[in-house]
C-alpha cells in the first residue's frame, strides 16, 4: 500500500502542471521493448489526469506485474512516423504560440481602438509604388551651376527681406523725404534722380533702425513689436545688411561715380558714430557734450547728410547745403533725446523713458550727470537698465532738479535759431525758405507739460 500512496501523490502533483507539458510514457508489459511514444490527446486534457484512477508504478523495468486493464486501450497508439511529424510541427510553431499567449491580453485591450491590419484593404497604389531612381552624379558634369544668373524668386525675396518689409509697412514720420523736398527748391535735382535718392535714403534709414533695435534690445518700434522679436535676431541682422547693398544697387541707377563714393563715406561715418554710442553705454562711460555731438554728427547726421550730398552730386547748382543739414541732424537727435524722457507719445510708441532702460547717455542725461559728478544715483540707474516705472520717475525727477530738461530746451532753441539764419543765407533772398523753416518749426521744443 505504501508504494501505491506514493504513486498517487506523484500523480496529483503532475496534474497541476500546464496542459502543454508532455505526458509521462507508460511502460509496456514487455520489458525488452522500448517505451511507446507519447499519445496525443485531441481533447487537450492531460492523459495523466484521465488515467489517474488507476495506480501506476513508475518503477519501470521492475519485476512487479502491472495491474490488469480492460481490453480496450484508453489512448490510441500513434504510428511513430506520424508522432515524429507532429512533434516537428509543434516545435516549429512553439515560438509563435508563446508570443501569441504572451501578448494576447495586451492586444485584446486595444482591439476596439485599433483595427487589425489583416482586415484592411491595401490602397491601389501600394503594390505598384517604386522608389525613385537614385540621383545621377554625372548630371553635374553638364548642368548649369551658375545660379546667380537665374531669376531670384519672389518667395525667397520675401524671406530675406521679411524684417525690412515688416518695418517699412509701419507708418513713420517720413522726415527725411520731407527734408529732401525742402532742399530741392535750391538744388533743382531732376525728379528721376530725386526718386532714386529718396528711395535709397529710406532703405538705409529703415535698415539702420532694424540694427538699432537689436543693439538696443528694444521691445517696441512705432508702437508695435520690433522686427527681431518676430523674425529673430539673426534673420533681422541679415535682412538689414542685405538692404544696405540693395540700396547701393539702387544708387547705381544714377550712373554717377560720385554717388558711390558719397554712399561709402557716409556709411563709414554712421557706423563710427554707432560704435561710440555703444561703447559709452556698455562701459558706463559718460561722454562730454562735445564727444556726444561728434557722435550724433556721424550717426544721425550721416543719413541726413547722405541725402543732401547725393542731391548736390546730381545738381547743377553750386549751392552747398551740408552745413545746414548738419545742424538739422544735431537738432533732430537732441530733440529726440528730450522727447524720449518726457513725451507721452514716445512712451506709447517706444516705451516709457526707453533710454534709461537701454542705459543710453543721451543729451539730458549727460548734462545731469556732469552737473553733479559726486552724485552717482543717475549713473547707477543707467547701470541697472531698469524697467521699473517708479525708478524711471525718480530719474526724471532728479534730472529736473539738475535743470537738464530746461538746458536741453535752450540748446535746441539756439540751434534752431542758428539753422534759420543759415537757411536764409543759403536762399539769398529768393524766397525759397518756406520748406526749411517749416521743418525747423516742427523741431522746436514745447513745454514738457503739453508734450
From TrEMBL:
Ranges of compositional bias, category Basic residues: 100-113
Source domain of life: Eukaryota
Gene Ontology biological process terms, A to Z: alcohol biosynthetic process; isoprenoid biosynthetic process; mycotoxin biosynthetic process
Low complexity biased stretches: 1-21
PROSITE patterns for the chain: POLYPRENYL_SYNTHASE_1, POLYPRENYL_SYNTHASE_2
Keyword Transmembrane helix: no
Biased composition regions of type Polar residues, renumbered to the chain: 48-70
Family: Belongs to the FPP/GGPP synthase family.
Keyword Ligase: no
Region Disordered: start-end pairs: 1-70, 94-144
UniProt-recorded Gene Ontology molecular function terms: metal ion binding; prenyltransferase activity
InterPro entries assigned to the protein according to its UniProt record, in alphabetical order: Isoprenoid_synthase_dom_sf, Polyprenyl_synt, Polyprenyl_synt_CS
One Pfam family per UniProt: polyprenyl_synt
Keywords: Magnesium, Metal-binding, Transferase
Biased composition (Pro residues): 22-40
The protein's name in its UniProt record: Polyprenyl synthetase, isoprenoid synthase domain superfamily
CDD domains registered for this protein in UniProt: Trans_IPPS_HT
Amino acid at each position: 500500500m505504501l508504494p501505491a500512496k506514493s504513486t498517487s501523490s506523484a500523480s496529483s502533483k503532475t496534474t497541476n502542471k500546464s496542459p502543454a507539458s508532455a505526458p509521462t510514457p507508460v511502460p509496456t508489459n514487455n520489458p525488452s521493448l522500448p517505451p511507446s511514444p507519447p499519445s496525443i490527446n485531441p481533447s487537450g486534457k492531460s492523459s495523466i489526469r484521465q488515467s489517474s484512477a488507476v495506480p501506476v508504478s513508475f518503477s519501470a523495468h521492475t519485476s512487479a506485474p502491472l495491474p490488469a486493464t480492460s481490453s480496450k486501450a484508453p489512448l490510441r497508439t500513434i504510428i511513430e512516423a506520424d508522432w515524429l511529424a507532429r512533434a516537428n510541427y509543434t516545435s516549429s510553431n512553439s515560438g509563435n504560440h508563446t508570443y501569441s499567449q504572451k501578448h494576447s491580453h495586451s492586444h485584446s485591450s486595444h482591439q476596439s481602438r485599433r483595427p487589425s491590419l489583416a482586415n484592411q484593404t491595401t490602397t491601389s497604389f501600394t503594390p505598384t509604388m517604386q522608389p525613385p531612381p537614385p540621383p545621377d552624379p554625372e548630371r553635374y558634369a553638364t548642368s548649369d551651376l551658375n545660379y546667380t544668373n537665374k531669376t531670384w524668386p519672389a518667395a525667397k525675396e520675401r524671406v530675406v527681406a521679411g524684417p525690412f518689409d515688416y518695418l517699412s509697412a509701419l507708418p513713420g514720420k517720413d522726415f527725411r523725404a520731407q527734408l529732401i523736398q525742402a532742399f530741392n527748391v535750391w538744388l533743382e535735382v531732376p525728379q528721376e534722380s530725386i526718386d532714386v535718392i529718396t528711395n535709397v535714403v529710406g532703405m538705409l534709414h529703415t535698415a539702420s533702425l532694424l540694427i538699432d533695435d537689436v543693439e538696443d534690445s528694444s521691445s517696441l518700434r512705432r508702437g508695435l513689436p520690433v522686427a527681431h522679436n518676430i523674425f529673430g535676431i539673426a534673420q533681422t541682422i541679415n535682412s538689414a545688411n542685405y538692404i544696405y547693398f540693395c540700396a547701393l544697387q539702387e544708387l547705381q541707377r544714377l550712373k554717377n561715380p560720385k554717388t558711390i563714393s558719397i554712399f561709402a563715406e557716409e556709411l563709414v561715418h554712421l557706423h563710427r558714430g554707432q560704435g561710440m554710442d555703444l561703447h559709452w553705454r556698455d562701459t558706463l562711460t559718460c561722454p562730454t557734450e562735445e564727444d556726444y555731438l561728434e557722435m550724433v554728427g556721424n550717426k544721425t547726421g550721416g543719413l541726413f547728410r547722405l541725402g543732401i550730398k547725393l542731391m548736390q552730386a546730381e545738381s547743377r547748382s553750386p549751392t552747398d547745403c551740408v552745413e545746414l543739414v548738419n545742424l538739422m541732424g544735431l537738432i533732430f537727435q537732441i530733440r529726440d533725446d528730450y522727447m524720449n524722457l518726457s513725451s507721452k507719445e514716445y512712451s506709447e510708441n517706444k516705451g516709457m523713458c526707453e533710454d534709461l532702460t537701454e542705459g543710453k547717455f543721451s543729451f539730458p542725461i549727460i548734462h545731469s550727470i556732469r552737473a553733479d559728478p559726486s552724485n552717482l544715483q543717475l549713473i547707477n540707474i543707467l547701470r541697472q537698465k531698469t524697467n521699473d516705472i517708479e525708478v524711471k520717475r525718480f530719474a526724471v525727477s532728479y534730472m529736473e532738479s539738475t535743470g537738464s530738461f530746461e538746458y536741453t530746451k535752450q540748446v535746441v532753441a539756439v540751434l534752431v535759431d542758428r539753422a534759420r539764419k543759415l537757411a536764409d543765407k543759403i536762399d539769398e533772398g529768393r524766397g525759397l525758405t518756406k520748406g526749411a523753416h517749416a521743418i525747423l518749426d516742427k523741431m522746436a521744443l514745447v513745454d514738457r507739460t503739453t508734450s
